[in-house]
Each structure stands twice: as C-alpha cells, then as structure tokens.
Amino acid sequence: MRIRVREGLCIEAKSDPCGLVIFGASGDLTRRKLFPSLTYLKEHGLLPGSFYALGAARSAMTDAEIRSLAPELDAVYYLRGDYDDAAAYRELKERMRALDKTHQTGGNAIFYLAVPPELYPVILRGLGDAGLLDGAAPGGWARVIIEKPFGRDLASAMELETALGAYLREDQIYRIDHYLGKETVQNILLFRFANSIFEPIWNRSYIDHVQISVLESIGVEKRAGYYDQSGVVRDMCQNHMTQLLALTAMEAPTSFAADHVRDEKSQVFRSINPLAAENVVLGQYAGYRSEAGVSPNSRTPTYAALRVDISNWRWEGVPFYLRTGKKLGKRAAEIAVTFKRVPHSLIPQLRPEDLEPNVLVFRIQPDEGISLSFEAKKPGPKLCLGALTMDFDYDEVFGEDPPEAYQRLLLDCMQGDQTLFIRRDAVKETWRLVEPLLDSKKFEPAFYDPGSPGPAAADALIGRDGRKWRL
Question: Taking all residues of the chain, what is their mean pLDDT, rounded to a whole number?
Fold first, then answer.
C-alpha cells in the first residue's frame, strides 16, 4: 500500500519549556518506559528546547548514576528523599528553582507519579504544602501524571479523586492509560471522522457486532503479588477495554478539543446497560494458584469475556463482545467491526449466509495496522468468490515501527493536550460499570488451560448469539 502525506495536513503543536520530576525514578517504569521515551523525543527534535528531568525517590543514587540510565539526555538529575518528609519537599523546591534558572524552563513543571497509588495523596500533600502545584516559579504551570489503577473500586476511586481535587484542578491532572497512546488506537477517531465512507454506515443498520480482544500469551510473571490483589477486571476491564469501546462507539465530537472528545466518551459509558450475569464469563488459568505470591485458594480472575449492550439510537441491538486474558494461545489486540451480511444473493447457487461478511479490523498489537475484508471474484473462467483483505501495516508503509505509547503521551502532557488522558467522570462511570464483577461469590472464575483460547464458557457466551470469536 502506498501513502501520500500532504504536509498541509500535518498539525504539530509546540511544547512549552518545562522540567519533568519523576517520583519513583529508581523503579522499573522509569528505566523501561520513561527514559527511553524521553530519549526518543530528544532524538526526533520533540523535546522542548529548555528542559530538564529530575528523578526523586527514596533510593540512594547520584546524578551520575541516574544519567547512566539515559546517557543521550543532556540534563538529568537526582534527589533522594522520603515521600512523607516535609523537608524533602522544601529541598525539592529549592532544587527545582535552581534548575529552572539554569535551564530557563519558565517555572513550568510536570510531576510524574511513578509510584504505588497509595502514595499519590502523600506526594500531592507534600507538593501542595510546598507550593509546587502552582509551578516551580511565579508564572509557571504545574501538571501531574498518575498511572492506573485509579482506585480498587468505585468508593476508593472517588476517595482518590477527592484527594486529587483537594490540590489540583482537572486541567492539571493527566490520568494515563498507555493503550490510548498506541498509534492504531489514536487512528480510530480520525479513521471514522476524516473519511466519509465509513461514518454513514457506522451504526445498527449496517453493523452486526463488534469484538474487542486484548489477549496475552504470558502469565502474571513477576507481578503476581500485585495481580492477585487486582485481577483482570481492575487491571484491564475498568480501563483499557472500556476506553477502546468508547472510541469505537462514541458520537462525533464537536471538535478534537480534549473535552469535546472526552464528553462523547463519557456519554457512551452512561449509555451502557448494567452487565447481566449471563453476559459475563470470568476465568483463571490452570496453575495460576501455584505462581509465587498467589494465594493457593485465589479466586482472582485472569480472563474476562463480556457482552456489552449500549442503549442509544446508534447502537441499540448491536452487541459489543469484550475479551481479555492471560496465558492464552496467542498475543494479539484488535477491534473487529463485523458488518451485516448481504440481504439477498444474486447468484442462485449461493445463499446470503454463504458469503463472508465484511470485517474492518484495527490491529493494536503485535503488528499495528488496519484491514478490511471483502468478497471478490477470483481470476478465471469460473465464477468463484473468495474473501480478500485490503491491509495497511504501519511498519510496511512507513518503514519503521510506530512510536511507543509513552512517547506520545509524555509529549501530549508537555503540550497541555489532555485528549488521550482519562477524565474524572470517565473514572466514575467505568467503575460503576465493572464493579459488580468484583463479587467473587457471584462470579466464580472457570479454569482454562494455559495456551488455550480461554474457558469454554466464553465460546458459549458468544455462541448463543450464533457468532464465534475471531481470534
């Protein structure tokens, strides 16, 4: 596939000068994602001209040691301190003021909380009491990035929101969901609303059903202790899966301004029917209870399959099937939109049900891209029909892998763009939707073999509607 990019259609925002303070800088997220992402932004000329990164954590580390983790970056520093020590925040304030003068960052600061969620209120209190949430210097701005989970249930999520709201305005809060930074996920809205051929048929009149699958071939690995307290509902359903659903189902926003997009996503969440027990299958892979750090009697689900119904004019009667799990037969993530079959066959020998329906697939991983299947005649004297696929692959077309999610999301925060970040009302609505699934007495997970497609009950869930899972 060839693509012609018109420069007039390229929109590039500029980042303000700023400093990035990473709490938990000695941890895994900083090493694996944040520093590599900053390095990518620098190499591609996307970092602000005036910028510094300051790591903050309880571990002993020198400036030289933290710079060894990101040798390509010019201005990386470290400050050791306890998160609950007021003196540490006073020292942080002095260090940031000095770095602000050195690097001319205008008092602008991003605070990345790469720490366990229970530390969020502690750190926010320290920053607030030190006066750092108004910027590192007069005239500057302050933004805070937090990682999921945003609470363990609706009540704790609202407690967290209360803590956030005590120190921050909503326009300062960047709740990150790295799935929203993936290139194909970003493309969903532009694909829908920048092309006139799809939006007129993006509704119950033409679409039969939608499947959203995020499948993992690995188990809980080294996250067993965390995962056994969370499970697939908290880890995947409340955030990644519901966000993919909203992007697929939302109405056209007034514009691509952050709040216009997020308004429409929240409207989708409010339109979803409560999940009935017969539309839910939870599972646990065999051997999970033997993982180090997992309770031998654990009922924590590692798999979920849901039928979600949206009650609005566009989607009434169109089921959305969501499926995600660990230790499955393949690693893949996609959104598959299956259109209705033709109502009548012009060829007497073929029934309408003999013809494959058109399927539009947004591939999220491992090979990002978009494909559309359709029926066409095979070459030759006989009238032979076959299903063909038009395929767009990011790597093949552009000659390089798409940017990593954190690269895009860090850049968006520097530019003050909250479009790909979660808003408070979405946190509330998604917890309202999935919280009933946390009742282990009502939803006991079914066992499934590692390397299998999942529990048989999931096949029955979609099978009772006369459909099958694609993957």
Answer: 92
Q: Which of 27-31, 227-231, 302-306, 438-442 tops mean pLDDT?
A: 302-306
Q: Report if residue 373 sits inside a domain.
A: yes
Residue 102 lies in a domain: yes
Exposed (0-12), middle (13-18) or buried (19+): which is 3, by Cβ within 10 Å? exposed
Write out pLDDT tens, residues 90-99.
Answer: 999 999 999 9
φ and ψ at residue 192, rounded to 5 degrees: -70, -45
Same domain, 205 and 278: yes
pLDDT in tens, 6-53: 555 556 677 899 999 999 999 999 999 999 999 999 999 999 989 999
Q: Which residues pair with 240 in a beta bridge?
A: none
In whole angstroms, give the CA distance from residue 27 to residue 49.
27
Strands 76-80 and 51-57: parallel
* Domain limits for position 389: 180-398+423-463
**How confident is the model over 285-317, as pLDDT tens digits?**
999 999 999 999 999 999 999 999 999 999 999
Kindly list the catalytic residues: 240
From 96, 124, 147, give the residue that closes a domain. Answer: 147
Tell me if 163 is assigned to some domain.
Answer: no
Q: For the chain, how many structural domains are there in total?
A: 2
Residues near 112 by Cβ (< 8 Å), separated by ≥ 6?
20, 21, 22, 23, 34, 144, 145
CA distances in angstroms from 218 to 9, 173, 237, 250, 332, listed in the order given = 40, 32, 18, 32, 11
Residues recorded for the chain: 471
E-only strand ranges, 148-288: 173-176, 207-215, 280-285
- Pairing of the two strands 319-325 and 332-339: unpaired
- b or e along 426-453 (b: 16 or more beta carbons within 10 Å of the residue's beta carbon)? bbbbbbebbbebbeeeebebbebebebb
Residues 95 and 223 placed together within one structural domain of the fold = no
Distance CA 59, CA 48 (A): 28
Last residue of a domain, one of 147, 163, 198: 147
453 and 329 in contact (C-beta within 8 Å)? yes
Q: Answer yes or no: do 257 and 316 share one domain.
A: yes
Taking residues 420-439, report their average pLDDT.
96
Q: 3-state DSSP call for residue 295?
A: coil
Say what the pTM is.
0.93
Encoded amino acid at 209, one letter = H
